[in-house]
Design brief:
The protein is α/β, with parallel strands linked by helices. Helices cover 49% and strands 11% of the residues. The chain is built from 34 helices and 19 strands. It has a 7-stranded parallel beta sheet with strand order 3-4-2-5-6-1-7, sandwiched between helices. A hairpin with a 4-residue loop joins strand 18 (515-516) and strand 19 (521-522). The N and C termini lie far apart (86 Å).
């Protein structure tokens, strides 16, 4: 055995140039060489591929490597060939090869020159390939990305379920299955499907000490991302989005703001996609904005940040994508933007899929929500999800660095555990939380649990609170999720012991991520940055002077929210002024020069460091609704028809029109006003605004008389007034 070890080290040095193995690579390779089935769980960057590449070079015969990604196969074959003088040492068989190339591969394999043959699962199932492989001496089968076998894996591929029957037809040999992400449930599925329940399992820790995890509420996410990238200039990063459209939009926004960024998604033609990926690898661009399909085939060691603009569909997917950061052991920041609205969108996408698939999808999404909203140490939660226990907090994630309020959880835990036992350990987190809070959902009623003694036993707290308690009981190891019927809660021995002799346990209050993105304020506090009161005062004086000179009410020039925003953002150029609330290009041009000149002098005199936000330029607003409204008003369409076409209430349409006009676009709605209002009324409202102190509709109605004038009439004339005098 020791002799074997010496041979291994010699070959490691000879082929790969390394002096020592990483983690448990050596034991894994020895296990493969002894002809045993092997199951390897090793996080991204841990050195998985070496576990089958080295034994393939030592063992007689050809190792068949089943891998789902053509790009990855090509990379690995090139890498293997660089270690050996014989070009034929490694080949791949997939749909990208010509007939001649396929013939050459088969010749090399039959001549026993090839030690590694990479095959896509789709190619493996082709009858001609099965017949060919029957004549090959196979050293072992390596199944990479083995989580694709399980429907609970984040990247399920039905053709992966057919691997075992085909191996049985070709001829059996030992199997090594490898994956970088697998929950206990997925691991069990893989072993069952590959008929390797007796395999030796090698599990490396999923903990990546150099990664920093943070979840932020999704408010002005594009702006936040641009600020973050500017603060990390020159570093490589990946930004993940769920839709192709968002990838394109975000990449464009980054480019406009002077960031070297390119998009990457499956809808682009292959040449552009490959070219964009290569530019990222060659560091001609710093940032790739991509759908989750990106990055599988790349091995860039110095990705310094991975940002999720959209939260992924599963924690496995999230772990895999964040795992692309800091593979060299250096800094890796993983930041996700989260809003519950995104989760609801993902649930909508699931409709129409088979029920079983929807069930699984929903369960995986719940895990993601739990992770995002939790106030527990993030690596601790992630590791727990992958069946690994972590003693202390990491001290390097947002929750550890900014701990949330804690409370004594003993009585809540006792109640939770008793409820789980009370329903015979046959239900999931959500169901238990509903029972405890007294929420009679249809499932609770179906099982008659609204008559249970535990129904409403914790009704002073809401479902969300009980969800958090149950989740922390999972992390603490008091309960576990059943593997066969994934998600059913069962008490562990520690849970039973806790019930017998309860002890004090502090729990954390979850984050509240109910965000109203339009207002940019999280419910439950927060708000905008502090306004510079002195500057605001000076700006109001300037507005007053200008109003006098132009004989206009001050609010026609800029409304108060616009001045307040200027006193936060300090715009010193006209294009920066266009990023201010309620200021469009027209308004900036017409009134802006004196304002930005004043602000520039003020900033210089006071030596003010301006918020970086102002670097953010917006891509020309292509909002379909606004464009449609402007075009329809130009065509003199009745407002009712415009509202109907865009499924808006009349007041919502008026809101939209007001926003367009207050940003400086001229709109002529005379054709509509003249139709619904007599001249006298119109004149009276118009004159009121000419003299008014404020643009307030309430004040106008109080002054003019609410019984004679409607809110709609006042707002429409106010739009005419702003459009004619202000723009």
């Amino acid at each position: 055995m020791e002799n074997f070890g010496a041979i291994l080290h010699e070959n490691l040095k000879k082929y790969f140039g390394f002096d020592s193995f990483k983690g448990n690579q050596e034991e894994i390779i020895l296990n493969v060489l002894q002809g045993n089935d092997t199951f390897v769980l090793m996080p991204t960057g841990g050195g998985k591929s070496l576990c089958y590449q080295l034994p393939a070079l030592i063992k007689e015969g050809t190792a068949i490597v089943i891998s789902p990604l053509i790009a990855l196969m090509k990379n690995q074959v090139d890498a293997m060939r660089s270690f050996s003088l014989d070009e034929g040492v490694a080949h791949f068989l997939n749909s990208s090869l010509t007939k001649n190339a396929v013939e050459k591969v088969k010749r090399d394999v039959l001549d026993q020159r090839t030690r590694l043959l990479y095959v896509a699962p789709e190619s493996l199932t082709k009858e001609e390939n099965i017949e060919f492989l029957k004549h090959v001496t196979i050293s072992f089968y390596a199944i990479d990305e083995a989580h694709c076998i399980s429907e609970w894996g984040h990247d399920f591929r039905p053709e992966y379920r057919r691997i075992r029957p085909i191996i049985n037809r070709i001829g059996t040999a030992p199997i090594i299955a490898l994956t970088a992400t697998a929950t206990p449930k997925v691991q069990n599925d893989i072993q069952k499907n590959l008929e390797m329940m007796d395999a030796s399992v090698f599990k490396s820790s999923f903990r990546r000490h150099n990664l920093y995890y943070e979840v932020r509420p999704k408010i002005h996410a594009t702006k936040e991302i641009i600020k973050f990238i500017h603060a990390n200039r020159g570093k490589s990063g990946i930004v993940y989005c769920l839709s192709r459209k968002k990838v394109e939009q975000l990449a464009e926004a980054l480019q406009v703001n002077g960031i070297k960024a390119l998009p990457y998604h499956a809808g682009m033609d292959a040449a552009t996609r490959t070219n964009n990926q290569d530019q990222f690898l060659m560091e001609e661009v710093d940032v790739i904005v991509a759908t989750i399909a990106f990055g599988m085939g790349i091995d860039k060691p110095d990705v310094r940040f991975v940002i999720h603009y959209d939260i992924p569909k599963s924690l496995e997917g999230y772990y895999q994508e964040t795992g692309r950061a800091g593979r060299d052991g250096g800094e890796g920041k993983c930041i996700a933007f989260y809003s519950y609205k995104d989760i609801q969108k993902l649930e909508k996408f699931m409709q129409g899929k088979p029920v079983a698939e929807q069930e699984i999808g929903r369960q995986l999404l719940l895990e993601t929500v739990a992770y995002a909203e939790s106030a527990v140490c993030r690596p601790k939660l992630l590791l727990n999800y992958f069946g690994e226990y972590m003693e202390e907090g990491c001290n390097n994630c947002d929750n550890c660095l900014h701990p949330k309020e804690k409370f004594e959880g003993k009585s809540y835990l006792i109640l939770s555990l008793k409820t789980i036992l009370g329903v015979k350990e046959k239900f999931k987190v959500e169901h238990i939380a509903n029972i405890l809070s007294g929420n009679a959902t249809s499932a609770v009623k179906t099982y008659k649990h609204h008559h249970s003694e535990y129904f409403g036993a914790g009704k002073e707290k809401e479902v969300k609170f009980w969800n958090a308690v149950l989740r922390q009981a999972l992390v603490a190891g008091l309960i576990t999720k059943d593997i066969e019927n994934y998600g059913l809660l069962k008490l562990t021995q520690a849970g039973h012991d806790f019930l017998k002799e309860p002890y004090s346990m502090m729990l954390t209050q979850d984050h509240d991520f109910d965000i109203n993105p339009e207002e940019g304020v999280a419910t439950g506090g927060g708000g905008t940055s502090a306004v510079d009161e002195e500057l605001l005062h000076v700006l109001k004086d300037l507005r007053k002077k200008m109003a006098k000179k132009l004989n206009l009410p001050p609010f026609v020039i800029f409304q108060d929210p616009s001045l307040e925003d200027m006193a936060i953002q300090y715009p010193v150029k006209l294009e920066e002024l266009q990023n201010i609330v309620g200021v469009g290009a027209g308004k900036a041009k017409k009134y802006g020069t004196e304002f930005v000149n004043l602000i520039r002098e003020y900033v210089e005199e006071k030596d003010i460091i301006r918020p970086q936000d102002m670097v953010v330029k917006s891509v020309v607003n292509k909002s379909g609704v606004k464009v449609y409204i402007i075009q329809s008003i130009d065509r003199k369409l009745p407002l009712e028809d415009i509202a109907y076409a865009k499924n808006l209430e009349m007041m919502d349409l008026i809101d939209e029109i007001e926003a367009i006009v207050s940003s400086g676009t001229k709109l002529n709605i005379d054709y509509y006003i003249n139709e619904i209002m007599d001249d006298e009324k119109l004149e009276e409202i118009f004159e009121y605004f000419r003299e008014a102190e404020t643009e307030s509709v309430e004040h106008a109605l109080a002054e003019l008389g609410e019984d004679e004038y409607s809110e709609e009439e006042v707002r429409l004339v106010r739009i005419k007034f702003f459009s004619e005098l202000g723009n």
